[in-house]
Design a protein that fits this description.
434 residues; alpha/beta; Rossmann fold; Serine Threonine Protein Phosphatase 5, Tetratricopeptide repeat; DNA Cyclobutane Dipyrimidine Photolyase, subunit A, domain 3; five-stranded parallel sheet; 17 helices; binds flavin-adenine dinucleotide; FAD binding; lyase; FAD; chromophore
């Protein structure tokens, strides 16, 4: 008789049960399945630029996301073990104690994530199989019409070819295991305090008044598409600055994988069949392709996305003036529109896309500050931080990435066009300037 196979699903940035290839494969291929998530202490340490890798906003969102994941897995009769420890510390032990044959996880290609995986492999017997899947893309890497090294440096070329030639795969479904699959679990999910932060109430002015987790992501999808039909006007409102509904706000859930880009895509298709298909419904797909594109740029260019010269290896004279950096962070520059956006980020962990483009352009192209410092600050603060989108966009705006036109934003003009009545600036600067 064939030996009983035991699988371990190692969750990282794919914190969901629906449309999760790793989880589906683990259930299909094994008799018993356990799951694990590690709050890696390195993700909360300070980096060389003096900011924590993760600040309180994303830490809280992550705790909420893992809490929901645990509940959802329990409904499938799968136990989620949660550690506040390096994966290299806990995973080899789980493998040894439970006689795990295969480990299932989302493929990551950035150097720190690859190093962690290699460290785990060094500590377990060669017989343990490591099975990675690309859970994070809209266009699966095996389906795009390019070998990675030939991915174009211009987005439009990439998008046109993929739209023409690549079919989006269906979602993965998941079925529960039998009750006895659950195991004793004494691990606990850390609290915001045990992660080293002081608990906080979210600022009521936030444009992102949502919680983490798959359930909340699905609720938002239902609300934005079906209940309010905001999807129908997305292209007209997406450059807004105030409130929850000018854009989808999917990014924090997409970033930690509480929802997949494919799930959103197939729901748009359903919406187009049942409600209407217009420029706005298409434009949300267009933006999801941007998200994919920066992932492909990161696979293609490796660690260059973190280097000062970016993927273009430009040799600009970047400055590191501390008082200019502080003024930018604290919203005390000469530009009220930049200041309002920076205060919003500091108070809430959120900033609109329009805001991000402006403050990043101001940082790199008006103040000539080393763009990696701005990117590292965003990395700490953003609820929706995603390594590929963050560094890809920062390079783009700073003239060392994928913008063929190397634009500089005219901040006062942007403020006039997008905040004509100064409502956004009033909201965040309050009595300071008005
Ligand atoms: C300097 C800078 C840094 C950024 N850092 C991040 C980051 O760390 N994480 C992140 O998710 N996005 C980042 N973005 C992209 C973009 O600002 C956010 O994805 C968007 O504001 C999220 O809001 P939303 O979900 O309502 O977007 P919507 O307008 O509703 O768009 C839907 C989805 O499309 C994707 N998307 C939209 N615009 C972009 C874009 N420019 N690049 C990549 N994907 C996009 C996102 O997944 C988003 O959730 C950055 C942009 C800039 C200019």
């Amino acid at each position: 008789m064939q030996k009983k196979q035991k699988g371990l699903v190692w969750f990282r940035n794919d914190l969901r049960v629906n449309d999760n290839e790793s989880l589906t494969n683990a259930i299909d291929e094994n008799e018993t399945v356990i799951a694990v998530y590690c709050f890696d202490p390195r993700h909360f340490e300070e980096t060389k630029f003096g900011f924590k890798k993760t600040e309180k906003f994303r830490a809280k969102f992550l705790i909420e996301s893992v809490t929901t994941l645990k509940e959802n897995l329990e409904k499938l009769n799968i136990t989620l073990l949660v550690y506040h420890q390096k994966p290299e510390g806990s995973i080899p032990e789980i493998i040894a104690q439970n006689g795990i044959n295969s480990v299932y996880f989302q493929e990551e290609w950035t150097s720190e994530e690859m190093e962690v995986l290699e460290n785990i492999k060094l500590k377990v017997p060669d017989s343990v199989l490591f099975k990675a899947s690309y859970n994070q893309f809209l266009f699966h890497p095996e389906d795009i019409p390019y070998v990675i090294q030939l991915i174009p440096n211009v987005f439009t070329k990439f998008r046109n070819q993929c739209e023409k030639l690549t079919k989006i795969r269906p979602e993965f479904t998941v079925k529960p295991l039998f009750k006895e699959n659950l195991i004793a679990n004494e691990t606990i999910i850390p609290t915001i305090q045990t992660m080293g932060f002081t608990d906080f109430e979210m600022d009521s002015r936030t444009a992102f008044p949502f919680r983490g987790g798959e359930k909340e992501a699905v609720k938002r999808l239902q609300n934005y598409f079906w209940e309010t039909k905001k999807l129908s006007v997305y292209k007209l409102t997406r450059n807004g600055l105030i409130g929850a509904d000018f854009s989808s706000k999917f990014s924090p859930w997409l970033s930690n994988g509480s929802i997949s880009a494919k799930t959103i895509y197939w729901e748009i298709v359903k919406y187009e069949q049942k409600v209407e298909k217009n420029d706005s419904t298409y434009w949300l797909i267009f933006e999801l392709i941007w998200r994919d594109y920066f992932k492909y740029i990161s696979i293609k260019n490796g660690n260059s996305i973190f280097k000062i010269g970016g993927i273009l290896e430009k040799n600009y004279d970047w400055k590191t003036n501390q008082s200019s950096i502080k003024n930018w962070i604290n919203g005390t520059t000469v530009e009220p529109f930049v200041n309002a956006n920076m205060i919003e980020l500091q108070q809430t962990g959120w900033m609109s896309n329009r805001g991000r483009q402006n403050v990043a352009s101001f940082f790199a192209k008006n103040l000539y500050l080393d763009w990696r410092i701005g990117a590292a600050y965003f990395e700490a603060m953003l609820i929706d931080y995603d390594v590929h989108s963050n560094y890809g966009n920062w390079m783009y705006v700073s003239g060392v990435g994928n913008d063929p036109r190397d634009r500089k934003f005219n901040i006062p003009l942007q403020a006039k066009n997008y905040d004509g009545e100064s409502n956004f600036q009033k909201l965040w600067l309050q009595q300071k300037l008005f």
